[in-house]
Amino acid sequence: MSEGGTLPQTFAVVLAAGKGTRMKSNRAKVLHTLCGVPMVNYVIEALKPLAPERLLVVVGHQAELVEAVLPQDAETVLQREQLGTGDAVGVALEALGGEEEGVLLVVNGDGPLISERTLEELVERHRSAGVGATVLVAELDDPSGLGRVVEDAGVVRIVEERDATEDELGIRLVNLGLYAFKLSEIRDAVGRVARENSQGELYLTDVLEIIGRRSRAVTYRLKNLEEANLVNDRSQLARAEEILRRRILDAHMRDGVTVRDPDSTHIEASVEIGRDTVILPGTFLRGATMIGSDCVIGPSADLLDTVVADGARVEHSVGRGAEVGERAAVGPYAFLRPGTVLGPDAKVGAYCEVKNTRVGRGSKVPHLSYVGDAQIGEDANLGAGTITANYDGVNKNRTTIGDGAFTGVNTNLIAPVTIGEDSYTGAGSVINKDVPPGKLAVGAPARAIRESPQRRRKRMQEGDEKGQSRTERED
Which residues are catalytic? Predict the structure, then answer.
């Protein structure tokens, strides 16, 4: 305890400078995502509740790319040469300037499953023990590939698997690469470590041993072994993502979402879903996707950055940057591309592709159509095979379809063109000129020949209503 009984301040360092050669990747290891989030960001989020005085992220390999995915409040420090974990901590200590008092919490960026609770308990264990260093360890059934932990009279020694004796290989207690250090002790020890290895690197495990001999080191055993899943290769990446995926699904189910088959459902960490929505098997929800209440999504829906309003249904379909209105229906086998906005009660049916188009309330694009760069009014109906020819080889042109319009099957709309309110196109028409409101257009190219059926029905209905009103007045 510091003067006045207050706890010493905590400084946090995330090690994210390494290349991660076992990933066999062109990307830095910490850039690989789990449920849509770079693995390093999970570590940072676990640290934030501890409210560290400063939170430093040591970057090195592909530093600019790593910095680009970090939260804005993360403070980066550059390790120009990747000369080991001890050197990375040394770079962070330089950035901390003259700070001597407090706890330095060191966390690897490749441990995305670590929890806030474990980090808090590690720091508490360190403070209560009054030692120079505390290391997080776990007892695993299969310790393969991890450094074994040997404790002896306050000295904690980490033996790498390649250097271990036969007896040491039998040890199941392993190092997880998370440490709490007394700040003054780690400063002193980093300066004393010799780079006596073939790589000429400075390892944090050597620092730990020096501190143990000077002011004791202790271990803290991990309680939830799921958190021991560090990511060093693609297999471990998949294992960690499966654990995170199930955590996400469980959280949604606890909040009132029905997930029919969790084993085949993939929902990224950033997705929001309202209560009483049902997610059917084979569904992928990713990015900034937001699903309202009382929706049915799936089976086999794939939505990225797509907003679905209350009561809508999306079945066997793909959405990319689209908006689906209340009670709208999509699919099966529809493709909503960026800029698509479906109004309430709209429908986009089987084998349709819609791009950069607004579909008005109650309007239908039922099947086998391509609609791009268009504005569709309310209660319109596009017949099967309706196509907007929106690209002339140079420019993308818009099509406007008025309220109540009806296109016959296999209508080609050659943009820019306007289909007027309550107008009608005959089957197989090629529309390259505007169709006036209330007219029927047929042919290739089409021409307006008479009043459209829906305009005639409206006129007759209005006439009947007027006649009925006149009779009621006479009565």
Answer: 367
